[in-house]
Design a protein that fits this description.
The complex is a heterodimer of chains A (about 400) and B (about 280). Chain A has about 400 residues and is of the alpha/beta class. Helices cover about 45% and strands about 15% of the residues of chain A. In chain A, helix 3 runs antiparallel to helix 5 (about 100-110), helix 5 (about 100-110) crosses helix 10 and helix 10 (about 210-215) crosses helix 12. The longest helix of chain A has 15 residues, at about 35-45. Chain A starts with a helix and ends in a 5-residue tail after the last helix. A nine-stranded parallel beta sheet of chain B has the order 5-4-3-2-1-9-8-7-6. In chain B, helix 2 links the parallel strand 1 and strand 2 (about 60-65). The chains are: A alpha/beta (about 400), B alpha/beta (about 280). The interface of A and B includes residues 27, 28, 192, 290 and 297 of A.
Chain lengths: ~400, ~280
């Protein structure tokens, strides 16, 4: 990566037509194109409106519970020979970072006069976050969820219903997150005049990747200030898991111009990259157009999108945000894959060492700590300073974990 | 085609005029019947067997390239796409179907596709092979005018038309931009929604057609939700083309393979009769 590229990255604050180099853009049916243009205009206007931004700030503080803490994980640090901090997004209301974006977009929808909200969900975290903010703001809420995920995440389905949302089971295709996104797009194409689609990750057509990044960047902004306050310096690296990539881009973006801070994304290696049963789009996919944007995607030789596998439903997605594709190509960030077993081990380790039950998604990020520490160590004496984004808490994963560990409750 | 594609878009000297242009000119005011079938559905062999019958009844054939994630399609086309893929349908296989049909029919063929299989194939290679097989145009469902230039250039170099979609939600400015890239005809999406069988016609149609006419002299074909001879009659009165897709695919899904040829011809004849009654 040349220094011009570095500068160029810092200027990608608002990419023209949503293009991040060759990635991004808008690849959607014509019917919703005008709506994307309107959304972009409304979004840019809102972010310049002090009334809108102060309402968002206020609700992030009083409703979501921000700022979330930056916790010095000393026991974990001793185990991996590094100074490790955890950005505690698991402590945000509803238990994950998803609500930062859901709240921002719901306020925007309200401002645009759209009273009906639709959303997709995989693990159910984004669905719960969306149902939550819709309850708060009095908006109608419909959440699409693959039949397979409904089965895997029955508790979150019940949560959404308690919050007043209608959960529609998606029976098409692989019956998981990618098909839930397809079905949400179909609803949007049909009801575009009255409905806003709260997309849950930094994927999809422009302006979603930019908008979701901006709403999630509160994570990295807080973490950057917090680490400087306690350590007096910037970290050597920040680590986050990547499915679509929203918690990662939210953590990475405020550090993007800090050249000494390495950005490390961790994808779901599933049963191992060589088995084909994984969800590592950046590590193992190729550029293509999927769900409205050009980006890395898992596809076959015919350009058909592949099914994926991960122990964590939140990472079980064949695409990834276009800005991550750009960060990969430019070399500014590097991406690794962690398999199911490694994630499960890191999950158990954090439970025991720190008294925190993480979600399986950030357990992938935790699992690469030894490898990252090794690559960043300059001298034996000086331990690397790292932040891991703990994007969500693990309560939702108890069923999966007990099954994986062969435990009967 | 307009000058928007610039000097880089060299046009291959194709000897014959594009079949779409010939067909619409020869219709001389009568509305074209455009029939959509999913390529490789119900399976490759049956699909190739029914295509000549579709070609005999239709003024234009739309051949769908199956895609794993068809976001603009309703349940009928979704199911047909998945079934076709499960039976091994590929882009190359669909082009081969075009080539086989071309040996016995001059009915214009438009390939209806999502963008990713085309990118994966390579834009220039796709355009070249599509022309060689005997296709006349391409509709890319998820490729709005903002992103369409690379494909438009590749198609133009081979003398193929890019048929754009416009929708009731399209602004006049968007319609104008789409019209500049367009060749053959303009596909007017009758409603805000996905493809599928509907009970009634969308009230948005006349206004959309009127707005399209202000920006283009090309034929206007109306599709999405046109399901019955009555619908076809009403649309034929106001538009230069009527697209029937899901209703035909639904018929194919309900018909035993041995009866497909006769059932398709019966269905198309009923639609034709409806259009003639207009």
């Amino acid at each position: 990566m040349t220094s011009t590229d570095q500068k160029r990255f810092s200027r990608l604050e608002y990419p023209v037509e949503g293009h991040f180099g060759p990635h991004g853009g808008r690849f959607v049916p014509e019917t919703i194109m005008p709506c994307l243009t309107d959304l972009e205009a409304a979004y840019r206007e809102a972010m310049l409106d002090e009334e809108f931004t102060s309402r968002l700030r206020d609700l992030l503080r009083t409703f979501v519970g921000r700022p979330t803490s930056l916790f010095a994980a000393r026991n974990l640090g001793r185990a991996v020979q590094a100074r490790v901090y955890l950005k505690r997004e698991d402590l945000a209301h509803t238990g994950a970072h998803k609500i930062n974006n859901a709240l921002g977009q719901a306020l925007l929808a309200q401002r645009m006069g759209k009273r009906r909200i639709i959303a997709e969900t995989g693990a159910g975290q984004h669905g719960v976050a969306t149902a939550t903010v819709c309850a708060l703001l009095g908006l109608e809420c419909v959440v699409y969820m693959g039949e397979e995920d409904v089965r895997r995440q029955s508790l979150n389905v019940f949560r959404m219903k308690l919050l007043g949302a209608e959960v529609r089971h998606v029976q098409s295709g692989t019956k998981t997150l990618k098909d839930a996104v397809n079905e949400t797009f179909r609803d949007w194409v049909t009801n575009v005049r009255t409905t806003h689609y709260i997309l849950g990750s930094c994927v999809g057509p422009h302006p979603y990747p930019v908008m979701v990044r901006d709403f999630q960047s509160v994570i990295g902004r807080e973490a950057r200030a917090q680490i400087q306050e306690v350590e007096g310096r910037l970290p050597d690296g920040v680590i986050a898991c990547v499915g679509g990539g929203s918690n990662a881009i939210g953590m990475f973006y405020p550090f993007a111009d800090d050249e000494t801070v390495e950005l490390i994304g961790v994808e779901a290696g599933g049963e191992g990259l060589s088995t084909g049963r994984h969800a590592a789009s950046l590590v193992s996919g190729s550029p293509g157009v999927f769900h409205g944007a050009s980006s890395y995607v898992l596809q076959d030789d015919e350009g058909q999108i592949l099914g994926t596998h991960s122990i964590s439903a939140g990472l079980d997605y064949p695409g990834v945000g276009p800005e991550h594709s750009y960060l990969k190509d430019s070399g500014r960030a590097r991406y690794l894959a962690a398999d199911d077993k490694a994630a499960l081990r890191a999950f158990q380790q954090l439970c025991r060492l720190e008294g925190i039950i993480p979600a399986l998604e950030p357990s992938h990020a935790l699992s690469v700590l030894p490898e990252v520490v090794e690559s960043l160590r300059v001298t034996e004496a000086q331990e690397p300073l790292l932040i891991v984004n703990l994007s969500g808490r693990g309560d939702k994963d108890m069923d999966t974990v007990t099954r994986s560990l062969g435990v009967e409750l | 085609m307009n000058g928007i594609l610039g000097a880089g878009a060299a046009t291959r000297n194709t000897t014959a005029e594009n079949r779409l242009d010939v067909t619409f000119r020869q219709l001389a005011g009568r509305s074209a019947l455009i029939l959509y079938v999913t390529g490789g559905y119900p399976d490759l062999e049956a699909s190739r067997r029914i295509l000549p019958n579709v070609a005999a009844e239709a003024d234009v054939i739309e051949l769908g390239i199956p895609f794993s994630d068809p976001v603009a399609d309703g349940p009928v086309v979704q199911r047909s796409s998945h079934a076709a893929l499960e039976h091994g349908a590929t882009l190359a296989g669909c082009l081969e179907s075009v080539r086989l049909l071309r040996q016995q029919s001059d009915t214009p063929i438009v390939l209806m596709t999502y963008y990713n299989p085309v990118i994966r194939h390579g834009l220039d290679r796709f355009a070249h092979e599509a022309r060689e097989a005997g296709a006349d145009g391409v509709i890319a469902v998820d490729l709005p005018s903002e992103e369409a230039r690379p494909l438009a250039v590749a198609l133009k170099a081979e003398g193929l038309h890019l048929v754009p979609l416009v929708a009731p939600t399209s602004t006049d400015q968007r319609i104008e931009r789409a019209a500049k890239l367009a060749g053959g005809f303009i596909y007017c999406v009758s409603l805000t929604g996905v493809t599928g069988v509907r009970d009634g016609l969308s009230p948005d149609i006349p206004h959309l057609l009127e707005r399209v006419r202000r920006h283009s002299d090309l034929p206007r074909a109306v599709g999405f939700g046109i399901s019955t001879p009555g619908h076809a009659r009403d649309v034929a009165r106001v538009a230069e083309g009527v697209v029937i897709g899901s209703a035909l695919v639904d018929l194919i899904s309900r018909t035993p393979k041995s009866a497909l040829e006769t059932e398709i011809r019966r269905f198309a004849a009923e639609i034709r009769a409806g259009m003639a009654a207009g």
